[in-house]
Amino acid sequence: MSSIISVRGLNKTYASGFEALKNVDLDIRRGELFALLGPNGAGKTTLIGAICGIVIPTRGTIHADGHDIATDFRAARAKIGLVPQELATDAFETVRATVSFSRGLFGKAASPAYIEKLLRDLSLWDKKDAKVMTLSGGMKRRVMIAKALSHEPTILFLDEPTAGVDVELRRDMWQMVRKLRESGVTIILTTHYIEEAEEMADRIGVISKGRILLVEDKATLMARLGKKQLTLNLQAPLAQLPTELSGQPVELSADGTALTYTFDSQGEQTGIGTLLRRLNELGIDFKSLQSSESSLEDIFVSLVRERA
């Protein structure tokens, strides 16, 4: 699949000497939903700003849909829609006027029909004549998305789009995002709600301290780094883990009532059979068991901690 965004050797060092981005290489595929995850201060917003032409990199190259962001800025920027973290709107304008104005900024001919469809899709049509300053925070967030889509971009950046948004609006927003992806728009998302990335993303990139730690297909990442756990609830509590089980990936709960065995579900042998036989030999009985799987959040926290 071809890349719609290509970043090579990207660095950003501020006047203070702080390195926000360190030799970043990144390719984003046309039509995918790419989730960029990282802790606060990792460089997510700086990277997005550089791709969108808001932040001037110290060195490196960026191409957006075939256009160099430095030498062909207008053409590159016209391909990109950006929904920033901060709510920055024309507070005294009406919803329809501010979205229409954003379209004109990119040299697009007026299209009342397109603006109406956009506002209807975002459940903003009944607010079209309301001044932005009178809207709730969630509605202002929808206006920001409408402005970002006003010029019909092929690439859409969503920087923490559901921060401070209620559950209902978050659900509506993700329905809209799915429709956009189905229509061929490439979507790059940053979020603190890792369950959203786990549900929505095709691929995931992890950034920490200005460096890209990895980029993987979501399923591949979870299969490669995810672990499964088997928890056995014991008939009688144990005072301590038997020495016969030491050296194995088995933990005893603080109250001694459960054993948790961690294993690689992709491995040729899980070791569960051996564990159960050993417990039987030791006379340790259990009354129930359940298995669980690492979430994307578990994997993310583990990756960042390992490479800190």
List the helices and strands and how they pair.
Elements: E1 3-13, E2 19-29, E3 33-37, H1 44-51, E4 59-64, E5 67-68, H2 73-78, E6 80-83, H3 95-105, H4 112-121, H5 137-149, E7 155-159, H6 167-182, E8 186-190, H7 194-200, E9 203-208, E10 211-217, H8 218-225, E11 228-234, E12 250-252, E13 258-263, H9 272-281, E14 286-293, H10 296-306
Parallel strand pairs: 3-8, 3-9, 6-7, 7-8
Antiparallel strand pairs: 1-2, 1-4, 4-5, 9-10, 11-13, 11-14, 12-13
Number of strands: 14
Low-pLDDT sequence parts: none
Roughly what fraction of the amino acids lie in strands?
25-35%
**Shape annotation:** elongated
Helix content: 25-40%
Largest sheet geometry:
6 strands, mixed
Structure, described:
- With 308 residues, the chain is of the alpha/beta class.
- It folds into two domains: 3-223, 3-Layer(aba) Sandwich (Rossmann fold); 227-294, 2-Layer Sandwich (Alpha-Beta Plaits).
- Helix content is 32%, strand content 28%.
- The chain contains ten helices and 14 strands.
- It has helices at 44-51, 73-78, 95-105, 112-121, 137-149, 167-182, 194-200, 218-225, 272-281, 296-306; strands spanning 3-13, 19-29, 33-37, 59-64, 67-68, 80-83, 155-159, 186-190, 203-208, 211-217, 228-234, 250-252, 258-263, 286-293.
- The strands form three sheets. Strands 6-7-8-3-9-10 form a six-stranded mixed sheet, with helices on both faces.
- Strand 12 (250-252) and strand 13 (258-263) form a beta hairpin.
- It is elongated and about 80 Å long.
